[in-house]
Amino acid sequence: MAADNVATLDPRLFDEDDNAEDLSYKQIINSLLTQQASPVQAAARTDDWVVGETNRRYNELKQREPPFSLTDEEKDSIYLVGPNASRQISMIVGAIARVCSAYPPGHPVQDALVGLFQALKAMPKHEVPDLSYDEESNEPSFDRKLALWPFGTPSVEYLAQKFQREAEELAYPFSEVETPGSEFQLRWKNLQGFISRLTSLDLIDCSIASALEYILPTHHAYPDLDKRPKGGPNRIEADLIAAAQWLEPDQPRQWVYNQCRSTAVGDGMRQIWSMDKWNLFKEQLSFFSSDERFSQDTRRLAESLREKMETQG
After folding, report:
1. Which domain of life is it from (predicted)?
2. What is the pTM of this model?
């Protein structure tokens, strides 16, 4: 669904204390935000930066006498001198995690940011030096190689924490997400729209940051409707709008169902997806759609989502 005419928010890309390294990758991201580069072009520039920087640092250390020798001070801040492609990837993804909540689902910039991940994943595999530590001496080592780009593999699961951190900063208990039309509420929806696509397109599994968990009474941010007759329904409405990004579009909904179907019964908090969770989601939607404490729009959305889930199982 096109969203060109929908208002966007401050992308919060640049900071006052950005250094040259920060600006190197943020300027690439900015070329997508301003639509001055295509995802493929931005991916090529990103790859050039990571490959060029890691090889430069590796070769500088190799030329030392003896090769790869480090001072004690350098060992304490190894990320400043050693090749560390993993760190650079983490920095890039961290910036995008912060930026993505500015753009609503269907906006061309959101499409471009998703496209960047897809273009990087589609690149022919190539290796760069990466930082590791010797298991016995715990000394820095530069023998390990990292295959670019590892999106869609378990090795990038740690990157989901970048999006989880953004989710926690927006949707903590009693946050402004429950204020209708607030920036927090809009960012909460936009973030979920973005990570549901990253997840269902097999780029980064962001299940740990999904808003679907927030609509369950077991979640720590779920409000007490009896004690909070106004704020409680508002909070659930905001979480439902955000969670809808995982259920309304066909691809994320199918992905969620496939994950749930693979496990009949979950093991509590540790199991994000299971058929018992799938059924709990449907039960909650039935509750939201029938309880008059919720607005008519909320009840209609809940009923629509429940009907879509029924088509899966």
Report:
1. Eukaryota
2. 0.94
